[in-house]
Write a structure and sequence with these properties.
CATH class of the largest domain: Alpha Beta
CATH architecture of the largest domain: 3-Layer(bba) Sandwich
Number of helices: 14
Structural class: alpha+beta
CATH superfamily of the largest domain: FAD/NAD(P)-binding domain
Bound molecules: flavin-adenine dinucleotide
Distance between the termini: 12 Å
Strand order of the largest sheet: 4-20-16-19-18-17-8-9
């Protein structure tokens, strides 16, 4: 089959990489680089603020101003914002790269916790896990009907039923961090237990040495090795649809078209009239997630923190869900990560909020203060070691939040031969893992068609 993939985000590239082994694939990317939301930059580009706006982000604060940082950060590699991949080696992303023998080195860590003025690393001791395990096993290996029911059960309900001792704290923090949603009454117990099972492993979170772009580069290399093509700076304007079937893009014929962009944006390239009104309404009602993400370039980090990751939970009435969960990560700071300039340490963090809160300037200062206070608990007086700091608000972090009220669409659209890849669709995991798993599902569906 001849297949067009619109967008070179992780979902588009993972789809093209899998399909390139058996089909002719062409990837079209409107930007001058691959990776979508998982891109990496050498320092701060001139068009930084415009680029952020394109990803539904805004620079909330910077110390000093962005133009000055741009001159200082030339040999620092940064992504669009905080990124860690959940599930370590068991997650969809790491396993898919292993299958194509990609040369990507993942740095992993356990998770520590900041609680008041004290910190604990790792957050869960082997004894804690042993004590919680029977309860988690009971929930995970329940009968199929129970699992289905758990998908519709909120974490708030699960805490009432099962949340005792350490398990209560785990259920209060991890589901929020995994879904980037603070409202426990909206998070699905089934979905977060699935993701949590992966977090229980040796390295629950990983980051690729050399920056997130290493993942996209590995897929791109595999696509091109198999004869697939990637066209940059090629914005696709229209998917050609005839008799309920996708025929190609912008007048070029294809047997199948895969759209890789937040699902709410697909009507920019496919006319609404081709879908049932109800489907359009449903897709437009889906919402993503939000956060404040920050980078801190420090000239000193205690060696005891290097390579580790810490979570925090701030109870506050100022935000939906009456809490702000977040994370501060020091894996980018180790020399093996090849991100920070020699003798400097890039630290990344995020504090979760709703998309509306991320757009609300009156919340920015509060989110910044939450991040700063928690970083200060880890490194007392850290500000005196900060060479520069950037805080960005984002209101479309995940394509579609994995919440009970958001019914994520299938990879197959109502239009024949038109698929959706990325983190917006109903596949396993969150964020990058969800995008990679969407590619696995598309591959299976296309294979079953092409093999008759
Ligand atoms: C700041 C931030 C922090 C995040 N943190 C995490 C994290 O810690 N862990 C995690 O797992 N996930 C995280 N995510 C989410 C993660 O980045 C995404 O889930 C992941 O990158 C997958 O994206 P995608 O495949 O859906 O495609 P996208 O990244 O949305 O890519 C879509 C691509 O399509 C292109 N495109 C769109 N329209 C057209 C067109 N008409 N023609 C041609 N090209 C087009 C775009 O330019 C883009 O390159 C974060 C996201 C952000 C922004």
């Amino acid at each position: 089959m001849k297949i067009a993939i619109v967008g070179s985000g992780i979902g588009g590239l993972a789809s093209a990489s899998l399909l390139s082994t058996r089909h002719e694939v062409h990837v079209y990317e409107k930007m001058d680089r691959i990776g979508g939301r998982a891109l990496s930059m050498n320092g701060i580009p001139e068009n930084y603020k415009k680029m952020l706006a394109g990803f539904e982000m805004a620079n909330a604060f910077s110390m000093p101003d962005i133009e000055t940082i741009s001159g200082m950060a030339k040999n620092t590699k940064i992504d669009l914002g905080f990124h860690l991949i959940g599930g370590g080696k068991r997650g969809a992303c790491v396993s898919s790269l292993k299958r194509i023998n990609a040369n990507v080195n993942f740095i992993g860590s356990k998770l520590g916790i900041i609680e008041g003025d004290s910190t604990k690393y790792p957050m869960l001791s082997p004894y804690d896990k042993l004590k919680m395990l029977p309860r988690i096993m009971q929930l995970l290996f329940s009968r199929k009907e129970t699992i289905e029911a758990m998908k519709k059960m909120s974490i708030e309900e699960a805490i009432e039923k099962y949340g005792k001792g350490k398990l209560k704290l785990v259920l209060e923090i991890f589901p929020r961090l995994i879904t980037t949603v603070n409202e426990l009454d909206k998070i699905s117990t089934g979905e977060s237990l699935f993701a949590q099972r992966e977090l229980m492993g040796g390295h629950p979170v990983v980051y690729p040495a050399g920056g997130l772009e290493e993942i996209s580069k590995a897929y791109a290399m595999h696509i091109e090795k198999n004869g697939g093509k990637i066209f940059l700076e090629r914005e696709i304007k229209n998917v050609d649809v005839e008799d309920g079937m996708a025929k190609g893009i912008d007048g070029i014929e294809y047997d199948a078209v895969i759209l890789n962009m937040p699902v709410q944006h697909i009507f920019r390239v496919v006319k609404e009239k081709h879908f049932e009104r109800e489907w359009v309404r449903k897709i437009k009602s889906l919402y993503g997630t939000g956060s404040m993400v920050s980078y801190h370039l420090l000239n000193h980090v205690p060696s005891s923190l290097l390579g580790k990751s810490y979570v925090f939970l701030e109870k506050t009435d100022e935000f939906k869900g009456e809490a702000v969960a977040g994370m501060i990560d020091f894996k980018m700071a180790v020399p093996e990560a090849k991100i920070s300039p020699p003798g400097k340490y890039l630290v990344q963090s995020y504090a979760i909020c709703s998309p509306e809160e991320a757009k609300d300037r009156s919340k920015w200062e509060m989110l910044k203060n939450i991040i700063d206070e928690n970083l200060d608990r880890l490194i007392k007086g850290y500000k005196k070691h900060a060479e520069w700091e950037i805080y960005n608000a984002i209101w479309h972090l995940d394509g579609v939040a994995k919440t009970i009220d958001n019914d994520k669409p299938d990879v197959e659209t109502p239009i024949k031969n038109l698929y959706i890849a990325g983190d917006s669709v109903n596949s396993k995991g969150i964020g990058i893992n969800c995008a990679v798993d969407s590619a696995n599902i598309i591959y299976e569906r296309i294979e079953s068609i092409s093999s008759g």
